[in-house]
């Protein structure tokens, strides 16, 4: 059951699509402290908290302070409070009680979950205006499904988006892209997407293609498509200020950019230098920007990723000017502890400064609203612009779309990737731990940058991460400018990479079926063990996942490990894959095990009474569709597995 | 057996005190590539690499690139190559072969341990000049002891330095220090040291005390000592440029500061703003600076910590001037991807810029040597200045001393703390993993900042970290300006903290005995399991430690964990302490176990045939000395344990 409560006078977010009347009762479970702008509840020792989407730390969110305040911060260390997304749904779970809470506000809100005090959960608002949904149900999965139903069906990508994708900031020319495709082909590693990061554009202008480095783009798109490869360009939130650039000129003329209090368009800067930000919260501006994607779909593009939409701000022109003036004061001085750090702070305040969010305004639902009040739904509405437009531009066929920034509601229009992570072993674990929390909030088409985006990677990390990544819907290797190259063909163990990625393709019938069932049924694709198993030990497991109905995963995420501990809540069949057609099976008893796994092995645990379909991977997606399936079963018949299939491209 | 080889014309470091003739044979195991300035060896799959002291990542160093290049960088994330120390000793270990390698060079050197290529270890030099020691022996412990014998006996602190210490950047006044002492007393938590961070000084001038905030300092030192508390002030590497300040004026007059190529004293900046750095590599300057510690020992101080001695440099005056000039070029421009990041890089180049190491020179052993060539022995020689002086100033009694920066050789004069870590769970694990590597390099009196220095901590992290920290010789809680307070009395579970810290005091007879035996016998205090157990599984364990002869530790280092997996290489007796006098014992069989441990429990595994002495902790160190011991034994007699005891203060 879901009840809706209201505090203050909330700005709507359009995240909930069901019309639920506001209850006049007091909010259950919580103490309301209007003065402190706080809702709080006493945590019992057994209470565990799950949810909040894409955040740092473990699955059980107790013991830290999480702040919804979308931020472009690539250092996802344990001390961070905010990442790119605001996904304000969580569940309180123990044997004694279970309920879900959705805090719907587009502004800044913190979740102090046993941080200040070990046994207190406090939701602390900047503005005490929000809709609060309390979700109850039989079990935690019911609660999640109940919540998911009111926020609407999750985005469904084309089936080809379950292939493997290679990215890099950036492949600079069409020839470089061809080389990537060639080398994957030579290595016998299937590939279905190559991502185009910012450098495909002409001077970082959205909806342009640099004609010198990517000549005859439509032909190139077609050429790649005949090789089974979709090109997926990036789109940024900022529109370059440049005379003669149509998007800029139209936006100015039609008043579609965000404005300062004095009515002038805000001048901020990102990749191209000075930009204006479209007012994605304004319906007309959103429709206008969304229609621009047609420039690229008309050239054959059928997938995009939206970036920098927190929005990331290198600087605002006004603040940069202030900083340069103040820098003068430090010149020639004896900079000591106070003045030196003041100088560092001054310069550090230039980029991604939350104070800049107070410098501009939106036209949102007929009101002029300062950005900081609706900050967390900006990226959501950029991606919504695209999603709504795709229904016009491509009414029959699905378009691939995922975004960096997000808010609940955006899950109807797109997936997300887990942002600019690092080539750290701890970020492989973070990837594992974020997945169920994202699913709870409606985001099903998700995945992290495999191998890590920032920092130099290592081959063993890429091997282990790829061995996990083959199970995530968005399966992409991506890395940053200046870091070690991490295309799989560049490493020493190409046969291992080939076997791992081909296993992904063999698994697509299962992964796609489970994805579609989760999307259609408002269910989770990745679950913590304790969402299905009621034993105490299961609720302690933070590094294993149930994936769909048939399998459990226990990935290796530490360097030099030749194995790991695995907890089995019931008997399972361990399948040790060396390749899709080379594996051993072993029945393992419920309980704790130390299980070895070589760098070239992928271990899957098949649950009792379940079957896992496997396809012949061939060289890519098409073969997978056509192939005969075989099944790995554990006390189940192949026919017990309900396969989902469709044409993979028609809108549903 | 130890053999010494020489490449090029190395600058001596004084780290090895035994006179070993240079062998004219080729260096065993390694390929020498003079052109590439590289020694390399092929790694077999089974080879594990241990050592390198205070570095990031796990115990087995395979899979990353470590660079000895002492650096003041507080973000100890997995991608870092250099921290504060250069400790160039490592062991190659497998069933088939085992040998130690010490690369003795004061300059920059990298250890590419299966990073570039999974099965190649390369030692890559900036200057191809070094002494290479190859150490062989019966087993890995023999190899370590063999190496430790040629570098001389490890530093031995006074016994009181095994008490608990509280620190903070900074306690600003004597009254604030008194309050800390009072609150610990009220909480019934023993405390033997309070650390004074930079603010006790007058304008951050070494060897001064601010008279307004710490009036009548000698009386205050005495007052605290009567309460059993030693005040331990910090000393920084930079000497403030200030007319009338004796250390500055003497240093200038006697030519004891490092100089630029033109003969002028280098002007750099740290806390007080502009400073000169003493030339610790110059014998006379070192003796002069060392004698300055007498200013404080004369006021009753008997312990110090040396900081900022990599050296940390906020800026050099010359480079800062250049930067301010170049900043002009960016003013008023449209800063885009190139120019914006160029601007950020320019400003980022101000502090701790390795290029600054080329701006100044030392007088070292009769030669003028540019700093970058001897960079890694700078902090070592600052601390050596103190250690050598203490033998003159305090010929009978030991003085507590530990340093942030270090090089092998410094272990004879002081301990180290693990530098400016963070309040991250991953840094509790890093603390565990760094200990044996530090021991291998001679550093026995070590410990990390418990609870984490940077970032806001959480009570559960402090509980778990303290429960591990009671086993480390240096047992100190320390945190940074601006972060959440983390004195133990400020949390909710004071009884748990009291029991944990008192257990430390009950363990002091054991810890001090094992420490002294390790120091006198050139042995390790903390060992990876596989240094004693030959089974395959032991060599996989990266989160458990053998501590001395009697016990094994398996700390909990993840948030919300109610237990953890533990591997027992043989049967052991698990002792589950709730307090020093409240515990259960249980025999556990060799093998893998999942073991529960509450936030208030400390688990110790007593090894078969061994005994663990326990004292009555009373309220502090004095009671521990006088008390009767009881023993927890596992198939052993109390008398089988060889207790070490001395007066705890006389030099040995």
Characterise the protein shown here.
The structure is a homodimer of 652-residue chains. Helix content of chain A is 25%, strand content 25%. Chain A is α+β, with helices and mostly antiparallel strands. In chain A, the strands form nine sheets. The first copy, chain A, has a nine-stranded parallel sheet with strand order 25-24-22-18-14-13-12-27-26. In chain A, β24, α11 and β25 form a beta-alpha-beta unit. Chain A is globular and about 70 Å long. The first copy, chain A, starts with a strand and ends in an 18-residue tail after the last strand. The interface between A and B is large, with 68 and 68 residues.
Task: Give a short overview.
Chain A has 652 residues and is an alpha+beta fold. Helix content of chain A is 25%, strand content 25%. In chain A, the strands form nine sheets. In chain A, strands 25-24-22-18-14-13-12-27-26 form a nine-stranded parallel sheet. In chain A, strands 28-29-30-35-32-33 form a six-stranded antiparallel sheet. In chain A, strands 1-11-8-7-4 form a five-stranded antiparallel sheet.
Name the descriptors:
homodimer, 652 residues, alpha+beta, nine-stranded parallel beta sheet, six-stranded antiparallel beta sheet, 14 helices, globular
List strands and helices in order, with pairings.
Two copies of one chain form a homodimer.
Chain A: E1 2-7, E2 31-33, E3 38-42, E4 48-51, E5 64-68, E6 85-86, E7 89-93, E8 98-104, E9 109-113, E10 120-125, E11 130-135, H1 140-151, E12 164-166, H2 174-187, E13 193-196, H3 217-226, E14 230-236, E15 239-240, H4 246-254, E16 268-270, E17 273-276, H5 283-292, H6 294-297, E18 303-307, E19 315-316, H7 317-327, H8 337-348, E20 361-364, E21 367-370, H9 371-374, H10 378-393, E22 400-403, E23 406-407, E24 415-417, H11 425-440, E25 446-447, E26 449-450, H12 459-469, E27 475-477, H13 494-520, E28 526-527, E29 545-547, E30 551-553, E31 563-568, E32 572-579, E33 582-588, E34 591-596, E35 602-607, E36 610-615, H14 621-626, E37 629-634
Parallel strand pairs in A: 6-23, 12-13, 12-27, 13-14, 14-18, 18-22, 22-24, 24-25, 26-27
Antiparallel strand pairs in A: 1-11, 2-3, 3-10, 4-7, 5-9, 7-8, 8-11, 9-10, 15-17, 16-17, 16-19, 20-21, 28-29, 29-30, 30-35, 31-34, 32-33, 32-35, 36-37
Helix pairs in contact in A: 5-10
């Amino acid at each position: 059951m879901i009840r809706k409560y209201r505090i203050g006078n909330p700005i709507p977010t359009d995240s909930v699509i069901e019309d639920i009347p506001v209850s006049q009762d007091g909010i259950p479970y919580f103490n309301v402290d209007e003065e402190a702008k706080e809702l709080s509840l006493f945590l019992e020792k057994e209470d565990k908290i799950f949810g909040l989407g894409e955040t740092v730390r473990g699955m059980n969110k107790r013991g830290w302070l999480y702040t919804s305040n979308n931020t472009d911060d690539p250092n996802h260390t344990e001390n961070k409070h905010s990442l790119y997304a605001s996904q304000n749904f969580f569940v309180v779970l123990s044997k004694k009680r279970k309920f879900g809470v959705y805090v719907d506000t587009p502004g800044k809100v913190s979740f102090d979950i046993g941080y200040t005090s070990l046994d207190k959960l406090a939701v602390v608002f900047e503005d005490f205006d929000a809709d609060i949904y309390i979700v109850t149900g039989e079990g935690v999965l019911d609660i999640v499904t109940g919540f998911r139903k009111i926020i609407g069906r999750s985005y469904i990508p084309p089936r080809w988006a379950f292939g493997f994708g290679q990215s890099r900031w950036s492949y600079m020319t069409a020839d470089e892209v061809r080389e990537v495709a060639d080398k994957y082909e030579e290595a016998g590693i299937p590939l279905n997407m190559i991502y185009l990061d910012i450098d495909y554009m002409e001077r970082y202008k959205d909806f342009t293609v640099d004609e010198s480095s990517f000549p005859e783009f439509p032909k190139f798109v077609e050429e790649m498509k005949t090789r089974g490869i979709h090109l997926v360009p990036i789109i940024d939130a900022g529109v370059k200020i440049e005379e003669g650039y149509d998007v800029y000129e139209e936006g100015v003329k039609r008043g579609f950019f965000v404005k300062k209090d004095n009515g002038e368009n805000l001048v901020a800067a990102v990749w191209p230098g000075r930009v204006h930000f479209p007012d994605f919260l304004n319906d007309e501006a959103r429709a206008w920007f969304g229609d621009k994607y047609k420039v690229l779909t008309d050239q054959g593009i059928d997938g995009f990723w939206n970036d920098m939409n927190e929005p990331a701000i290198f600087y605002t022109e006004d603040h940069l000017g202030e900083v340069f003036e103040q820098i003068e004061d430090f010149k020639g001085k004896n900079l000591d502890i106070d003045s030196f750090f003041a100088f560092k702070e001054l310069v550090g305040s230039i980029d991604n400064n939350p104070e800049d969010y107070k410098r501009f305004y939106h036209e949102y639902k007929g009101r002029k609203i300062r950005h900081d009040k609706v900050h967390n739904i900006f990226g959501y509405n950029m991606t919504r612009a695209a999603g709504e437009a795709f229904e016009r531009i491509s009414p029959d066929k699905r378009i691939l779309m995922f975004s960096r920034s997000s808010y609940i509601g955006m899950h109807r229009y797109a997936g997300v990737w887990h942002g600019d992570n690092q080539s750290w072993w701890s970020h492989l674990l973070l990837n594992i731990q974020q997945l169920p929390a994202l699913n709870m909030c409606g985001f099903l088409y998700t995945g992290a940058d495999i191998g890590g985006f920032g920092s130099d990677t290592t081959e063993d990390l890429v091997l282990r991460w790829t061995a996990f990544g083959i199970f995530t819907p968005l399966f992409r290797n991506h890395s940053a400018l200046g870091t070690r190259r991490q295309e799989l063909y560049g490493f020493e163990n190409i046969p291992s990479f080939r076997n791992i990625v081909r296993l992904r393709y063999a698994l697509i019938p299962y992964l796609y079926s489970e994805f579609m069932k989760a999307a259609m049924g408002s269910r989770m694709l990745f679950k913590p063990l304790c969402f299905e198993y009621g034993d105490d030990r299961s609720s302690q497991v933070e590094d294993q996942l149930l994936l769909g109905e048939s399998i459990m995963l226990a990935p290796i995420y530490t360097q030099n490990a030749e194995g790991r501990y695995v907890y089995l809540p019931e008997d399972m069949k361990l399948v040790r894959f060396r390749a899709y057609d080379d594996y051993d099976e072993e029945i393992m008893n419920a309980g704790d095990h130390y299980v070895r796994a070589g760098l070239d092995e992928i271990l899957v645990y098949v649950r009792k009474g379940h079957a896992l379909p496997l396809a012949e991977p061939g060289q890519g997606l098409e073969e997978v569709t056509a192939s005969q399936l075989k099944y790995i079963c554990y006390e189940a018949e192949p026919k017990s597995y309900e396969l989902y299939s469709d044409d993979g491209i028609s809108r549903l």
